[in-house]
Amino acid sequence: MAEPQRTARNVDPQEIAKFEQLAERWWDPSSEFRPLHDINPLRLNYIDERAGLPGQRVIDIGCGGGLLSEGMARRSATVTGIDLGEAPLAVARLHAEKAGVEVEYLNIAAEEIAEERAGQYDVVTCLEMLEHVPDPAAVVAACAKLAKPGGQLFFSTINRNPKAFLFAIVGAEYVLRLLPRGTHEYAKLIRPSELAQWCRDAGLEVRDTCGMTYNPLTQVYRLNRDVSVNYLMHAVKAGQP
């Protein structure tokens, strides 16, 4: 019975292959992953300010090479990171071991671990991942299932509109070359209204939506209220902790 479940995983093999090929450069701040290094302090602070990471049990969905997972562990959270790419996970495990940071890394789908650990996490993060899966609404539902009542959930992705196409795909991948070409597909991008609806469908209350912008002249990212391209969303699961 286990094999049919595995073949039905909510995963695009081509998306996994993209990041498998780049895995060894994940922790190189001058590599294709430089944008993740640049935005990690911003998103880490956003999460910590709203959820209070010290002492919290956290799961990071689509953790990749572990930038966010390790950052949250350094802030005294107990962290599990999951991903379907074994190469990025191997990099994440090695880096954490060398850095002396404890993170549990697992090769498992969000929907699968949600069946095993329903309601076990104070904080659930799923950043820069939803636009890479065939059924993002199912991932949001799995995230909601993993959270305890009153748990805090954080998502980030890219809006779907002409400006986002121009800045996040044409600008970032082809002009500025901040990301490898083909990293994002326009049809898979997600409007905030769509993500908010998936949150509500999963029993979550959206508390905040925050934009993230990049200035190519100063090469600086900052958080603001402009959600037209990149954005973060904070939601809370109904019920008392």
TrEMBL record:
Q: What catalytic activity is recorded?
A: a 3-(all-trans-polyprenyl)benzene-1,2-diol + S-adenosyl-L-methionine = a 2-methoxy-6-(all-trans-polyprenyl)phenol + S-adenosyl-L-homocysteine + H(+); a 3-demethylubiquinol + S-adenosyl-L-methionine = a ubiquinol + S-adenosyl-L-homocysteine + H(+)
Positions binding S-adenosyl-L-methionine in this chain are: 43, 62, 83, 127
Its keywords, alphabetically, are: Methyltransferase, S-adenosyl-L-methionine, Transferase, Ubiquinone, Ubiquinone biosynthesis
Q: What is its EC number?
A: 2.1.1.222, 2.1.1.64
| Pfam entry (one) | Methyltransf_23
Q: Which domain of life is it from?
A: Bacteria
Quote the InterPro entries the UniProt record gives: SAM-dependent_MTases_sf (IPR029063), UbiG_MeTrfase (IPR010233)
Q: Does the keyword Methyltransferase apply?
A: yes
Pathway of this protein? Cofactor biosynthesis; ubiquinone biosynthesis
Top EC class per UniProt?
transferase
GO biological process terms, semicolon-separated: methylation
GO molecular function annotation: 2-polyprenyl-6-hydroxyphenol methylase activity; 3-demethylubiquinol 3-O-methyltransferase activity; polyprenyldihydroxybenzoate methyltransferase activity
Similarity annotation: Belongs to the methyltransferase superfamily. UbiG/COQ3 family.
Q: What does this protein do?
A: O-methyltransferase that catalyzes the 2 O-methylation steps in the ubiquinone biosynthetic pathway.
Task: Output this protein's name.
Answer: Ubiquinone biosynthesis O-methyltransferase
Q: Which organism is the protein's source?
A: Isoalcanivorax pacificus W11-5
